[in-house]
Amino acid sequence: MANIITGAEALIQSLLNQGVDTAFVYPGGNIIRVFDSLFSHQSDLKQILVRHEQGATHAAQGYARISGKPGVAIVTSGPGATNTLTGISDAMLDSTPIVVIAGQVGTDALGTDAFQEIDLVGVTQPITKWSYQIRRAQDISWAVARAFYIAQSGRPGPVVLDFTKTAQNETVDYSPEKIDFVRSYIPSPEPDMSEIEAAARLIDCSTRPLVLVGHGVELGNAENELKAFIEKADAPAARTLLGLSALPSGHPLNMGMLGMHGNLAPNVMTNRCDLLIAVGMRFDDRVTSAVDSYARQAKIIHLDIDKSEFGKNVKPDVTVLGDCRRTLALITERISRTCHKEWIKEFKPLAQKEHEKVIDHAINPGEGPLLMGEVVNAIAMQAPSDAALVTDVGLNQMFAARYFKYSVPRSIITSGGLGTMGFSLPAAIGATFGDQERMVFSFQGDGGFQMNMQELGTIMETGAPVKIIVMNNSYLGNVRQWQQMMFESRYSCTHMTSPDISMIAGAYGIPFRRVMDRRELAQAISDMIAAPGAFILETIVLDEENVMPMIPGHEPVDHMIFTIDEKWR
Amino acid sequence: MMEKTLYTLIVHSENIAGVLNQVTAVFTRRQVNIESLNVSASSIQGIHRYTITAWSDKDTIEKIVSQIEKKVDVLQCRYFTDDEIFMQEVALYKVVTSVLIDSPAMNDIIRKYGAKLIEVNQTFSVIEKTGSTHDIMALNEELTAQGGMLQFVSSGRIAITRARIEHVNEYLEKISSQYGIKNL
Q: Are A320 and A303 in contact (CB under 8 A)?
């Protein structure tokens, strides 16, 4: 039987066919027909009206990161579409499956500089996994199916559908499509047994192995396989920023976080181990620092699903291509159960040193203004164990990442690759829709808060229960820290006067609490957690606090400094 | 700094608008100039074949190749050195006919290079030469020295591999068996 509907309606039915339950939307002239169809789908498709299209993409990212399902944003052409570019780039660098559907002028107006026309496919090709212009209604079912398949298979990423008005308005005999194969695209290559065996041999020969756990472990749902692997190999493991919740904070083999503001022990041991086993991570420069002095003494095994990551930054000795859920299990089967007690013991004094020099004071200063680590730690102590952490970018991000506790997967949602300030608030909103059971904490600084605070309107309207913590130091703190270290404290454009956040919270009807005195902190946090919905907790923190320890730029990964005054070369 | 070699990349892609942009963008990001580029049909219906040459070191070209191959609509990208391929370019030279007739050396030059005349009229003549970049440029130099050169154009390199395995066919066979799909 024929099912003649408009292209706009075919789009919505295609989305429903993909299991989409929520879309983050902002209407406009060249997508108006789709919104007319959405009007009839209020019961089967939740439509979250954001306040800015950037917010729509970050919300879609937050939704995807917590749920593992693709996030969807629907926006108009021209400025609506260009406003999504930051979120699309962010999703590309952090391998987040989102599908952005943007309106486009009619096909007869394409290329004429028509009102609100931009070459969206041209603009987004470099920052998407796939970008496609739908010109005919008959292509909608196929294009949407292909978009979702590409976005979430293999190494996930963003897909853009540039949806012309012509295709929206045309009628089509719609039937749903399913795509699970594209001949030019192998999302999850079959494991090569010779690679698996070579990796197993190296692991069996190693006496000082170190496992680097990346976001790929979480994307591949390989947390259990990872645990089984490190436990059998008795190999200490360290996590990247995006891999923080791929291994619980409390696991005995978890040695902490890698990178510029990571933990001392795993960074130092990177340059002392005899074997690095990198799983689903890409040797980002924030992890490796000076790449020419990175783990030169060690053999390197690199497990990844994306072949182009092999040797991109660091040359591996053995590569293992494929889905790490399978490759890790295959390697685990082939290695012998080992004990590396002496090697693991070597991490202890380093961890202790970091505690004495940095952590103890950071989380429990005792006197003086509140510190960021202290705030994060206090929240981590009261937060439900399955709470999700959404951070912004900068000091708040590093403190939150360092001092929050992770016990279940998909607990950290942060902008790692692109480093997008303003990410946290909309991403946290999206996360509350992606998993309505878990509590979502959004850590922000006073700078990032003001980058997308219009999304408080989305919270007001939808009741998204985001627990917002603004750590206000009146500075763009991370840049200020660098200015202090590298530019003789010439604080160029980093001091910032902020509005009275209590009045902003009041304007949006969101409960608010400001804390300056540490004696009030625990109670305020408990009030925030007990509040039925959203809450803004503003903490006034030390203005010139620095995040430490730190690998200064271009220094070897084991050269961490503990105070800003240590020698800067 | 690693030594630079002229590499020839052979890329097979779906015939979808915008793939060329994505392929060339990889070179731009890696700051490698494309020396020549040719796009044509391939032996497989619906699949386009790009022949691209670029001066680069091995390490960089390997990264470029894997990043091109990562594009969803690219089936395969391989790189080759000159000893691994048969290659040709074609050039056209437009010269003033009076020079062609009056200069006694012209005939010898054209014959020496195995070039041929494809147009002769009262005003101008067109010479065609197929061969290597080196020979094409040498012919250009000699013709220019005779005077009366009006236009010169040379195509990008086209290349066929010397290997006995057909890499793209092998790829298609591999995925058709992996996914259990006939008639890709």
A: yes
